[in-house]
Structure formats: C-alpha cells, structure tokens
Amino acid sequence: KAGVTQTPRYLIKTRGQQVTLSCSPISGHRSVSWYQQTPGQGLQFLFEYFSETQRNKGNFPGRFSGRQFSNSRSEMNVSTLELGDSALYLCASSSNPGTGQGAFFGQGTRLTVV
Amino acid sequence: DAKTTQPPSMDCAEGRAANLPCNHSTISGNEYVYWYRQIHSQGPQYIIHGLKNNETNEMASLIITEDRKSSTLILPHATLRDTAVYYCIVRTSYDKVIFGPGTSLSVIP
To answer: What are the pLDDT digits (tens) for A1-53?
Structure first.
C-alpha cells in the first residue's frame, strides 16, 4: 500500500506570495490532518479534514486554509507569506475517526520564505 | 496543550531495552495513549497505541498502568536506528493530535 504522499518536497517562496501544498492520503483513509513544524515551536496542529469537512482547527491565522476533495486528497494554502511561515509542513492520514487507529505521516514539504 | 509529560532526553545502550515513560494523570476513560517517533527531518512514524490493556507489535510494547495515569513504551532491543524523538499523545479517537516536546532518545553504541 502506498504511503502518504506530499508534493512538492521543497519550495522556496518570496514574502507576500501564496503557496499551495498537496497531500494524497493512504488509499481508503478519509481523514487528513496538517501540521507545521519549526525548531522553535515544534509540531503544531493546523487543521483536520474528514469527508471534505473541516473537523478540527488549530490556532493559526486565517492566512492558513485547507480543503479536502471527494477522493480524500487535501490541499493547504498559505496566503501573504511571512518569513515566519518557513517550516516543514506535514500531512497525516488515518481511517475513519472513532476507530482509534494511529495517523500515518508523509515526509513533509519544506517551505522556505525569503 | 499536550496532556502528557515526558523526560526531555534519555540514553540507551545499543542492544538493551529502551523504556520511555509518559505521565498522563488527567487521562479520561475514552482517551487512548498513542506513541509516535520522529527521526531527524522525516515525518513522524506511528508506533503503537492502547486504551487500557498492554499492547505489543513488531516495533514495541506499550505498558499502561492499571489507573491509566502513566505508560511506558518499550523498545526491546534498541538499535542506532531507534535514535529519534518519541512523542506520547493522549486523545480520544475524535480529537486533534497535539504533540508535546517529546523525549529525545539517543542509542549509544
């Protein structure tokens, strides 16, 4: 079974631009979560989608948004990029909520804002 | 905020068992204990989870105390490749996953 796939793996953007990151979950998984990881703040939860609906949201400004498609693939978008948005963005997928199964992570997208 | 407390770092000799503790004194009845690890620059890897009973899989064993207020992840024969940050997470199956700072395990040759 293929794992969680995130694209692109690396990205360099300029302040003020916007960026879209993509995540393809494990086949059959309907829940997708996004995380931001920085050296100073560690792993921080961004949001979670299940069946195209946002179920949980972390404490991030409205510049961070996401969506999930009917095939469970998910995208996250960051608008008006700031230097502090430089981070490793991780996506995780899991099966239906309530099963208790753990989440499986992709390798992440390394975003650098210059 | 994370609902768990873990030591910031631990060492373990290669070939020996690594026992990583986690305190979760406020755990509620429907919350699971999950363990993940993250090897440098890679995405976190799911290891194991449990609700009340001890669990074992090909990677590790999870021992949960009877009162469920603490647990221990056991890597039976630690190798250098087990050097990583280990995260203990408590959540219901519907909650968002909140990571704390974890325990940085160093396996020493």
So the answer is: 679 999 999 999 999 999 999 999 999 999 999 999 998 888 999 999 999 99
- Tokens 């979950």 belong to A25
Q: Chain B within 8 Å of A32 (Cβ-Cβ)?
A: no
- Give me the total of CB pairs closer than 8 Å, taking one residue from chain A and one from chain B: 57
* CB distance A93 to A49 below 8 Å: no
Burial class (CB in 10 A: 0-12, 13-18, 19+), A71: exposed
DSSP E strand stretches across chain A: 5-7, 10-13, 19-24, 31-38, 42-50, 53-57, 64-68, 74-78, 87-94, 104-105, 109-113
B41, B43, B96 ranked by CB distance to A48: nearest: B96
Given the DSSP bridges, would you call strands A53-57 and A31-38 parallel, antiparallel or unpaired?
Answer: unpaired
Q: What are phi and psi of A83, to 5 degrees?
A: -55, -35
Structure tokens at B46: 């799911």
Query: Residues of B with CB below 8 A from A104's CB?
Result: 46
Per residue in A67-111, pLDDT (tens digit) is: 999 999 999 999 999 999 999 999 999 887 666 778 899 999 999
Measured between beta carbons, the chain A residues lying within 8 angstroms of B101 are 42
Please count the other Cβ atoms lying within 10 Å of the Cβ belonging to residue B21. Answer: 15
Taking a C-beta distance cutoff of 8 angstroms, is the pair A76, A21 a contact?
yes
Mutate to test the interface with A, among B38, B53, B97, B104 (most CBs of A within 10 A): B97
